[in-house]
Inverse folding.
């Protein structure tokens, strides 16, 4: 969407240019005209314009002053100056202001249209400028550390990749990791920090701990660090190539465990803080990260003793206890809740149902609803749905027939399959209601705009002014209107103006030029030219043909 503002104190020129651009029929060009520099300033204070056509000499705020204001507030805006004066000094100053062109009024509309097309081409070229892409890539490199950390959280959330695709992700993120090899997983929690630290100072401690770990472990291990929402620091580790070999899995685990003790000591001595570590002594596959993460959480919370620094491994706790923690993670891994919540918010029915089916596929369909693991999964999703319904006030819109009251009544179901079918059906009802509400809001907005146009058909109507009435971004309103009606706003306004013009021509004796002015077409032949283009006859011919009958 390109927004064009025309400012000229001679109405015949402002109206003529306005009609010239409207007749181009470009749905991506929104045009507004004003008749003074002050009006132009008011428009620019409310809305961003891409191109401004301005007369240089206007009373009050002239073109040059307007240009200074534009360059201060909207530096990317292109300016085209118009003048009837062959004044080199004025023209030179205009060019110095950064105008993309300088057109004499005597050169005609075609020259102005050409200048606007050049300006649009420049805007589009800048959008596609490879320098911007290159700069973005450089910035992406500086963000690579953040992206790698987020990617690990993504994997912990249960994201599934085929090995070649995972390897591609590692390459793109410049990660020294191998998708085809297993990895070690360990976690840290800061036990003590000085009281009253600022947010920045707290993060400095975490960064320092991470840096210490990197210094001690990087000679033998590649590390991928991150952190979870519980304040735990996480690492995935793989042996370096030169450290691989016979019994390398055992060697890597022994090296990691022994070095974590050194890291703890370094943190005590250099940071005056204690850090607890937990780790798995066996390597796991990348698609097992959610289960491994859950085991580490269990180890971290298991704690032996209180208020003291610890270093625990999976060998420190009975295998039967550790095994229990893998069950809920397998079915409802870290991050799955957020994924379901996001899909529900966006109304992505198919993706939501696929996620639900993935969870259900891990359980036997005849599993008892009384099983604690089954209940945990059921209540997790039930809470998500109920919270969503409350947040969007959907309960009054959901019929009791949907049975939403059963969300916390496990006694109403005999098997997991029965309960899960109910939850999926309810989620479907929720998405249906959301779709209806969204479509109604869209329909109501477009209906309001159509009625406003009908009620103000004799006013100047533009996309910007209409978007202000509904408090929408102009580009968004344009797309919404086209989606709902199949017509562009510009075409719709013209259609309604011409329909009103026909009524006036058929039922009154008002002069053709006056009708044009009443409907916002301004002076001269602008109205007649537009009317003939859209109806095939001039306003006079239409009146005469109607009067014959």
């Amino acid at each position: 969407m390109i927004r064009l503002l025309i400012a000229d104190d001679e109405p015949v020129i402002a109206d003529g240019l306005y009609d010239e651009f409207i007749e181009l029929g470009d749905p991506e060009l929104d045009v507004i005209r004003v008749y003074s520099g002050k009006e132009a300033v008011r428009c620019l204070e409310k809305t961003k314009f891409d191109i401004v056509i301005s007369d240089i000499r206007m009373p009050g705020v002239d073109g040059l002053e307007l240009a200074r204001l534009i360059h201060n507030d909207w530096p990317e805006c292109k300016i085209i100056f118009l003048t009837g004066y062959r004044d080199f000094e004025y023209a030179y100053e205009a060019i110095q202001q950064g105008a993309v062109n300088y057109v004499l009024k005597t050169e005609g509309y075609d020259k102005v249209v050409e200048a606007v097309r050049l300006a649009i081409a420049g805007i589009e070229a800048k959008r596609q400028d490879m320098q911007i892409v290159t700069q973005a890539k450089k910035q992406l490199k500086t963000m690579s550390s953040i992206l790698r950390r987020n990617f690990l959280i993504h994997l912990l959330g249960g994201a599934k990749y085929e090995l070649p695709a995972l390897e591609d992700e590692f390459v793109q993120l410049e990660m020294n990791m191998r998708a085809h090899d297993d990895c070690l997983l360990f976690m840290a929690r800061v036990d003590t920090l000085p009281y009253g630290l600022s947010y920045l100072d707290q993060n400095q401690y975490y960064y320092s701990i991470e840096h210490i770990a990197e210094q001690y472990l990087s000679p033998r291990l590649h590390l991928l660090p991150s952190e979870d929402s519980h304040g735990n620091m996480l690492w995935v580790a793989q042996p370096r190539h030169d450290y691989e070999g016979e019994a390398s899995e055992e060697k890597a685990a022994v090296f990691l465990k022994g070095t974590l003790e050194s890291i703890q000591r370094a943190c005590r001595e250099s940071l005056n803080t204690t850090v607890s570590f937990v780790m798995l002594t066996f390597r796991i596959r990348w698609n097992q990260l959610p289960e491994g993460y859950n085991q580490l959480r269990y180890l971290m919370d298991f704690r032996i003793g209180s208020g003291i620094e610890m270093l625990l491994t999976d060998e420190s706790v009975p295998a039967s206890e550790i095994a229990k923690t893998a069950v809920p993670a397998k079915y409802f891994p870290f991050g799955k809740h957020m994924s379901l919540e996001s899909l529900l918010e966006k109304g992505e029915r198919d993706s939501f149902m696929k996620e639900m089916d993935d969870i259900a596929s891990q359980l036997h369909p005849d599993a008892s609803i009384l099983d604690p693991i089954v209940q945990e999964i059921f209540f997790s999703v039930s809470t998500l749905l109920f919270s969503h319904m409350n947040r969007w006030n959907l309960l009054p819109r959901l019929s009791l027939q949907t049975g939403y009251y059963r969300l916390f009544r496990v006694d109403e179901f005999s098997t997991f399959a029965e309960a899960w079918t109910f939850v999926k059906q309810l989620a479907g009802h929720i998405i249906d209601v959301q779709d209806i509400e969204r479509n109604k809001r869209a329909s109501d907005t477009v209906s309001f705009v159509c009625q406003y146009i009908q009620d103000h058909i004799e006013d100047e109507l533009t996309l910007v002014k209409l978007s202000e009435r509904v408090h929408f971004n102009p580009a968004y309103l344009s797309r919404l209107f086209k989606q709902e009606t199949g017509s562009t706003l510009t075409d719709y306004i013209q259609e309604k103006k011409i329909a009103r013009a026909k009524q006036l021509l058929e039922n009154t004796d008002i002069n053709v030029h006056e009708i044009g002015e009443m409907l916002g077409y301004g002076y001269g032949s602008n109205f007649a030219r537009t009317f003939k283009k859209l109806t095939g006859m001039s306003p006079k011919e239409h009146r005469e043909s109607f009067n014959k009958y």
